[in-house]
């Protein structure tokens, strides 16, 4: 192998490693050799366009000069036309860049690099549909080229096809986990979609490759702020103004006049309160750990929410509360009051409140699950026991249990209230039945008729007592369900 070819191969290896200055120095013999000059000028332009001012303060003009020199040596070289398109793009000459990219693909239709550059140029010129077809062709031409997936993801984002964009980013990162452009793009996409915490590990992966990237510091600043906002929201737990506080649920349940249910509810109140405190402590630790990472990245410590500012409450629809029951006369059943004990009219508010708490806590749990799955590498330093991933897993597990507790609690109270309402309908129907029988008995013209209507009244009494039994059986089921709902 002649010296020029040897130098070109060496410079190519160095460029693949991102060692741009060494690659540029190694190119000197290749630039002087006639048989390698074209490729050497192209590679020098490639190094300048990637390293930019790190390699030379005049990087742009030198890159443009190297491309022009390559084109003089070979006007039909696809690589040189591709590089010229890049310089035009960098200069904002989009139409000129598109023309050069089209020429590069014409000269080498199977070259994946030319195809995904053409897609970028088409996208820059708002030819989105054409860019999508070209980006797909680039992936087909070289399915192992991560940059082709970056272009495909950018085209998908331009079409607002978020799922396709995420899939393309992740496909590319599977090929090259250290590809800065793919990692940054995926992190920005997740952040834009509101999956802020999930983007943390993605950004960290990009930070390992390029710790000086300004976009990374900005992202870590935003994520750090988002974590603190979540912690503040969890502490203050904003709710619909119509919803009774969780701590007041014992009073909501109280009118049912059931000591077993009241005791079970109070046990649940204590357990869920303890669980919320646990989550708050874990969130505080997670914020501190992430903050340490963010500070190491040079992130800004944005001020969190002012505690004096009221958070917008969750807009949860509250059901209407029925008025007091009618004052029925129960003496026709030989009873002073309704045999079906308890007023469950306020249970609707209690169930709605628990439904709100369950939904909101489940949303938190889903968000924590996303970041716990994507934060396995997020640590302050090697060997540190404050592992962000472990903390997020614990928070996800605790919030999941809490969400299930709220849901089971709501289901138990709703089932009991429904059973009580049915039982009350039965007892009220029995009262009407007994009142009719009493009137018929008192107006009977014979003793036999009086006995028959008294039998009817006694059957109505048995029906009312059976309704009371249904209520008591529902209470036993409710107490059992409430105890089973205690977070373990």
From TrEMBL:
Region: Disordered, residue numbers: 431-456
Keyword annotations of the record: TPR repeat
Pfam families recorded: TPR_16
Gene3D superfamilies with a match to the protein in the record: Tetratricopeptide repeat domain
Residue ranges that the Swiss-Prot or TrEMBL entry lists as coiled coil: none
Protein name: Tetratricopeptide (TPR) repeat protein
TPR repeats: from-to residues: 146-179
Species per Swiss-Prot/TrEMBL record: Nonomuraea roseoviolacea subsp. carminata
């Amino acid at each position: 192998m002649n010296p020029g070819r040897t130098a070109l191969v060496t410079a190519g290896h160095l460029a693949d490693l991102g060692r741009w200055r060494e690659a540029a120095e190694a190119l000197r013999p290749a630039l002087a050799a006639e048989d390698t000059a074209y490729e050497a000028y192209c590679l020098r332009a490639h190094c300048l366009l990637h390293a930019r001012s790190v390699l030379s303060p005049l990087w742009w003009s030198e890159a443009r000069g190297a491309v022009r020199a390559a084109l003089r040596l070979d006007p039909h070289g696809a690589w040189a036309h591709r590089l010229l398109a890049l310089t035009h793009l960098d200069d904002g000459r989009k139409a000129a860049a598109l023309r050069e990219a089209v020429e590069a693909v014409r000269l080498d239709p199977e070259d994946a690099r030319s195809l995904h550059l053409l897609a970028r140029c088409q996208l820059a010129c708002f030819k989105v549909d054409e860019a999508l077809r070209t980006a797909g062709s680039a992936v087909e031409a070289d399915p192992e080229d991560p940059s082709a997936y970056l272009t495909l993801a950018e085209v998908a984002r331009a079409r607002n096809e978020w799922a396709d964009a995420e899939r393309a980013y992740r496909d590319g990162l599977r090929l090259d986990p250290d590809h800065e452009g793919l990692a940054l793009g995926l992190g920005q996409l997740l952040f834009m979609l509101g999956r802020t915490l999930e983007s943390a590990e993605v950004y960290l992966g990009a930070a390992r490759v390029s710790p000086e990237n300004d976009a990374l510091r900005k992202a870590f600043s935003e994520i750090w702020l988002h974590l603190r906002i979540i912690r503040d929201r969890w502490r203050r737990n904003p709710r619909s103004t119509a919803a009774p506080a969780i701590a007041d649920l014992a009073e909501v349940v109280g009118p049912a006049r059931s000591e077993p249910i009241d005791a079970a509810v109070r046990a649940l109140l204590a357990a869920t309160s303890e669980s919320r405190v646990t989550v708050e402590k874990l969130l505080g630790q997670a914020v501190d750990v992430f903050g340490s990472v963010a500070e190491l990245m040079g992130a800004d410590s944005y001020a969190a929410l002012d505690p004096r500012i009221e958070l917008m409450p969750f807009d949860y629809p509250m059901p209407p509360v029925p008025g007091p029951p009618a004052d029925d006369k129960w003496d026709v059943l030989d009873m002073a009051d309704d045999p079906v004990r308890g007023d469950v009219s306020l249970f609707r508010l209690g169930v709605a409140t628990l439904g709100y708490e369950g939904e909101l806590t489940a949303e938190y749990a889903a968000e924590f699950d996303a970041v716990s799955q994507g934060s396995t590498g997020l640590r302050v330093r090697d060997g540190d026991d404050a592992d962000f991933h472990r903390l997020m897993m614990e928070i996800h597990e605790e919030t999941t249990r809490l969400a299930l507790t709220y849901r089971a609690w709501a289901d138990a109270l709703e089932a009991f209230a429904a059973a009580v309402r049915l039982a009350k309908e039965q007892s009220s129907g029995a009262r009407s039945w007994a009142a009719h029988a009493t009137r018929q008995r008192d107006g009977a013209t014979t003793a036999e008729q009086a006995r028959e209507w008294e039998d009817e009244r006694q059957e109505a009494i048995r029906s009312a007592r059976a309704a009371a039994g249904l209520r008591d059986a529902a209470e036993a089921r409710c107490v059992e369900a409430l105890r089973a709902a205690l977070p373990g």
